[in-house]
Amino acid sequence: MGGVTPTLFVISGPSGAGKGTLVALLRERHPGLGLTVSATTREPREGEVDGKSYYFLSDDEFKRRVDAGEFVEWAEVHGHAYGTLASEVSSKLASGSSLVLEIDVQGAFQVKERFPDAVLVFIMPPSLEVLSERLRGRGTETAESIELRLANAEREMALADRYDDVVVNDDLDRACDELLAVIEKHERN
Ligand code: ADP
Ligand code: 5GP
Fold first, then answer.
1. Given the CA of residue 170, which atom of ligand 1 is nearest to it?
2. In angstroms, how far is CA 145 from the centroid of its own chain?
3. How many Å apart are CA 152 and CA 128, to the nearest integer?
4. Cβ pair 173, 18 in contact under 8 A
5. Is residue 41 within 6 Å of ligand 2 at its C-beta?
6. Which pLDDT tens digit goes with each residue over 66-75?
7. What is the spatial distance between Cα 77 and Cα 61, in angstroms, rounded to a whole number?
8. What value, to the nearest 5°, has the Cα angle with vertex 134 and ends 132 and 135?
9. How far is the CA of 68 from the centre of ligand 1 (A)?
10. pLDDT digits (tens, 9 = 90+) for 141-182
11. What distance in Å separates the CA atoms of residue 96 and residue 104, rounded to the nearest whole number?
């Protein structure tokens, strides 16, 4: 009665939709929620810390870990490899709290195959125009990287109906409330 089941949540959405911003705010409002640190072969951005933002790996090291079966899922995204290490999932789930994987659509479906009880949540930008403004406004990408991310966005958004829930990130506070309600709904199921 009234129990909370630790749940594996996958959050996806196009680059610039606001996943990172929303998840950070969500964790202030739901402090028990764990977050995995992914591995990637892309270069660190200014301010990103190895082991906190990502595990930044060389192409060879990433491939070695793929071959060793160390990833729960991995995918090529915007020209770089990104993946979730099994060690991240097992250690953080063992702590008994729910866990969020902020990963792309290809990775999301791999997780669902492996963990059928995982809940997939898609973060949708209000429009492609707003997405473009947010990506430019973030100031982290080259013009070329922005074009690549926008080109991939439509393809990713077309898969949103295969997710369990879709949250439109229009107003940040409102979207965070909705995301929190989605999380709590599934934790109580
Ligand atoms: P993602 O993690 O999906 O790539 P970010 O969280 O980095 O996206 O957000 C992209 C940019 O949009 C950031 O500059 C962020 O501050 C801004 N942003 C995020 N959510 C909103 C929102 N609801 N309204 C306005 N700007 C937002
Ligand atoms: P960024 O380079 O902006 O940090 O991330 C680009 C995209 O990579 C994000 O949209 C995110 O969903 C995806 N991503 C980040 N980590 C992982 C991961 O571990 N696995 C997969 N499949 N995608 C990831």
1. 23
2. 19
3. 11
4. no
5. no
6. 999 999 999 9
7. 17
8. 65
9. 35
10. 999 999 999 999 999 999 999 999 999 999 999 999 999 999
11. 25
Ligand having the closest approach to the CA of 77: 2
How much distance in Å is there from the Cα of 137 to the middle of ligand 1? Answer: 9
The residue to which tokens 């950070």 are assigned: 24
Ligand 2: centre distance to CA 187 (Å): 24
Record the pTM.
Answer: 0.95
Q: Is residue 169 within 6 Å of ligand 2 at its C-beta?
A: no
Cβ 19 under 6 angstroms from ligand 1: yes
182/176 Cα distance (integer angstroms): 10
First and final C-alpha spacing in the chain: 11
How far is CA 178 from each of CA 7, 22, 39, 69, 143, rounded to the nearest angstrom?
A: 17, 11, 29, 36, 32
* pLDDT tens for each residue of 23-79: 999 999 999 899 999 999 999 999 999 999 999 999 999 999 999 999 999 999 989
pLDDT for res 1: 45
